[in-house]
């Protein structure tokens, strides 16, 4: 008769196909640490069951390369054909789940005890409560919730799981909770996810950087009033204990009987009880225990146990790898670690937790290790890590390099701003925390100006006000203050400051500023035919622009932008003479850009097609252009033009083309891109009326972030009418 552990081993191994039995690279789940982790056992507890199963011909072992587990060969376990037959007699172990799940839900591991905790939490979830699940690091919070998820899914619920890191913000939580929809607006995300029979989980929320903690607090405040159940997993002390409407459930250590189940069966029961009591029933500490371990004198000394019985016994190579992983702001793959020699030893010692092929130390161990560094050691390690990541290409490498460079306090403001600007194009959340960290080391006006610009990208107006209040008076400060006035609806104050700034700018800067204002004025409306009065006003202002005292290069850029703007206005008011004139100017300027000229021609054909046959031919050409075009902005522009002329009977191919736009988010650091993004969310709400409320809330947020208050107000009015 098989023991529970033997049944668990066979069942787990049977999940992997026979084709992997001869592979050189095998998943970590088939290694001894991986098996122990999934079964919730101390690794030494597997030795006797594995020996017995191998003697009976139900499993076999070999050495192979474990993916993510270091370069050396490691022992792995496979089930035999006879073992598979045995599993087939054990009954159906895996249930078919009827619910849906989103996000990277951790791998399921066996849970010992926690029956009462599980029942209590399940009842709170079924009542759609908002819960803080708190406790010490390593106490088993995530494992408990992971085991709850399977049952919640079986009941037909939707489970949305988000795991936090330092650069997690609302948009990142939305990305994990949805089908990669980067909703930024709190109301939009609450509307989309806060529905009946939805369980919204946020894990490791204490890892969030202070720059983003307030925004996530506001999200929690809204979610608690939704119809969804909200479960926030947080390490004590809870940074959100000020939020009312959440019940706090504190997870304590395992009792004596449940704790003993984690230890090898051959240990004397009295000795096992002594171990459990000494370690306070702390599951991770019990996993880390070995027969050579010395027990602490007091229950509270779990951290002392980790230091003296785990960290102190590691080899030099393993300590080096542990330091690098403990220093990193995010989990790393083995090939990203500059000293990965100790990865296997760390894994064998149950020190790591895994996210597919990425790993990081359990936070209890990471925190203990960090506490042992001196400030000089910490700074030197950050410098070494910055040098390592500076030699690696890619967005991820750039932000980790910058993170280490800032924390080593070895940076020059101008070059740092350039790096943060590059990061901000794709990830403003990371850029925001980096600039805040830099200011703590060097309170510099240029750094604060960059912090203001990033906050504008993210529509974080309180943060903008805070930074502006600490910057010395300058044209740069005045321009940004004017932008803030405009966003807050104080147009007179904005104009007064803008005019003051213009007198301080060079001729080229004045032209650039005035043209950017004209483009914003044109875009500051929800997609529709432009009002004739507004069109004439913009055209008059274009006519009155003074191009004296600017270089040929600046003149070329200005004429390109203005002719594009005139062409758009002309099509909007059906002035084909003006459209033709601006098209001729653009043909000279864009002589080497046939794709752009083709896009302009297609837009014109969409505007003037006066028969169904001509219109269908134009749409066919538009479809071909979209399929062949690699430029995201051109693609979005022509898709929006096509949506305008085909509504409400959108062709299926056009809907699919628009949906695919969201697979490649636009840059976040330029206002023109943010306006285009807002228009995308507007059209998404038109195309998918089921989610219109959420999508238009997001569009309103993004219009405001792009300083298009009028468009935001117009859409808010439309939204109010449609509810």
Describe the structure in your own words.
- The chain is α/β, with parallel strands linked by helices.
- Among the domains are: 4-88, Winged helix-like DNA-binding domain superfamily/Winged helix DNA-binding domain (Arc Repressor Mutant, subunit A); 100-250, P-loop containing nucleotide triphosphate hydrolases (Rossmann fold); 256-309, no CATH class; 374-472; 505-592.
- 57% of the residues lie in helices and 8% in strands.
- The chain has 35 helices and twelve strands.
- The radius of gyration is 30 Å and the shape is elongated.
- The model has no long low-confidence stretch (mean pLDDT 91).
Count of distinct strands? 12
Give the helix proportion (percent range).
55-70%
Enumerate the strands of the largest sheet in spatial order, edge to edge or round the barrel: 4-6-7-8-5-9
**CATH C-level class of the domain at 100-250:** Alpha Beta
CATH architectural type of the domain at 100-250: 3-Layer(aba) Sandwich
Rg, please? 30 Å
Distance between the termini: 63 Å
Task: Report on the biggest sheet.
Answer: 6 strands, parallel
Count of alpha/pi helices: 35
State the low-pLDDT regions, or none. Answer: none
Find the CATH topology of the domain at 100-250: Rossmann fold
Indicate the overall shape: elongated
Proportion of residues in β-strands: 5-15%
Structural class: alpha/beta
Mean model confidence by pLDDT: 91
CATH homologous superfamily title of the domain at 100-250 = P-loop containing nucleotide triphosphate hydrolases
